[in-house]
Specification:
339 residues; five-stranded mixed sheet
């Protein structure tokens, strides 16, 4: 729009000065002051000082001239009304804070589970965004939800504190070793990752649709760097028994405490645990507590990334070479954990 004439600006500014003394709304006061200042100085000078665009000031002038101070008040946005009432919102916050559902059962909350629980209890289907905005008074909804989920995970891990204390006591005894155990699946499909290439050229990676794979069974001691690793065809109780027997034979002069997740074949009734091996289980939903996960990342990065193997034997040979070339110091640094 064209800039108002000077005489009109003076009249508008005088009226704005009179009403500025009677209004407590700081946004309205700020905009009235911008109108007053624009009557005395060029808008191109005022706008950078106030941190707004010149067109914004002209818009305020037009709205004030047509509607008075009401034109300077922010209008409510056109959002749809909330599907949840205040009681329902407080109930959802209680679920997250306590880590339990409406029936009092412990739940490891995710957004999907929370949406399903709201629909089950209240009969209302909500999306992800309303749940993020639900906790937006003091923090973003996402941060609040993640913080509550972390609090639940800490509760799940609380028994692990006593396990760590038992592990410390176990290590204080002679001829003992503590290991963390996990299985990693490796197959002929390559892991796609970044690589260096000449600028302007496209690097193509060969892939093949195949599902041939095997498993690497690895037990690693973060304190000493000792390891016992086997390449085996499947994951089941029988294969797990084979690994435990071989581990027991390799450490027949020591007592071994081994930590592993709660997979079904790890807790099977037919699992045969040798006398010199004691198994402790990690808390559920806590793969980050197992330092062997770092070994899988390292092997996939250095052995499988952007490389197509013709056969399982070729991939096995590569992994065996990488594992044999890893020193105890390297494994100790790679699988180090702060507990």
């Amino acid at each position: 729009m064209a800039r108002p004439k000077r005489l009109e600006m003076r009249a508008i500014a005088k009226r704005a000065e009179e009403e500025l003394k009677e209004i407590a709304n700081h946004k309205v006061c700020f905009r009235l002051q911008a109108i007053i200042t624009s009557a005395r100085y060029p808008v191109d000078t005022v706008a950078p000082i106030l941190g707004v665009h010149r067109s914004t000031i002209f818009k305020w002038i037009k709205q004030y001239n047509e509607q008075g101070t009401e034109g300077l008040i922010d209008k409510p946005k056109g959002h749809n009304p909330s599907k949840l009432n205040d009681h329902q919102k407080k109930e959802i916050i209680r679920w997250l804070t306590e880590g339990k559902d409406a029936d009092g059962e412990a739940v490891h909350w995710t957004v999907t589970l929370l949406i399903d629980e709201v629909e089950r209890v209240f009969g209302i289907r909500v999306g992800k965004t309303p749940l993020w905005l639900l906790f937006g008074n003091r923090d973003s909804g996402r941060k609040y939800l993640v913080r509550c989920m972390r609090w639940q995970i800490l509760l799940l891990r609380w028994p692990f504190k006593k396990t760590v204390e038992a592990m410390t006591l176990y290590l204080s005894q002679p001829n003992t070793v503590v290991m963390f155990f996990d299985e990693g699946r490796f197959g002929l499909q390559p892991s796609i990752g970044r690589c260096w290439i000449q600028q302007g050229k496209t690097y193509r990676i060969q892939v093949q649709p195949g599902y041939k794979f095997f498993y690497v069974y690895a037990g690693v001691s973060p304190t000493t760097g000792d390891s016992f690793i086997l390449l085996l065809p499947w994951v089941n109780t029988d294969i797990m028994n084979v690994y435990l027997q071989e581990l027991s034979h390799a450490y027949r002069d020591k007592w071994v405490m081994i930590f592993m997740d709660q997979a079904g074949w790890h807790k099977s009734h037919t699992l045969t645990v040798p006398e010199n091996i004691h198994i402790e289980y990690l808390p559920p939903y806590s793969p980050e507590l197992n330092p062997v996960e770092k070994l899988w990342l390292w092997l996939r990065r250095h052995g499988c990334r952007n490389h197509l193997y013709k056969s399982e034997r070729e991939l096995m040979d590569t992994l065996c070479t990488l594992i044999k070339n890893m020193s105890q110091v390297h494994l100790k640094q790679l699988c180090n954990c702060n507990y």
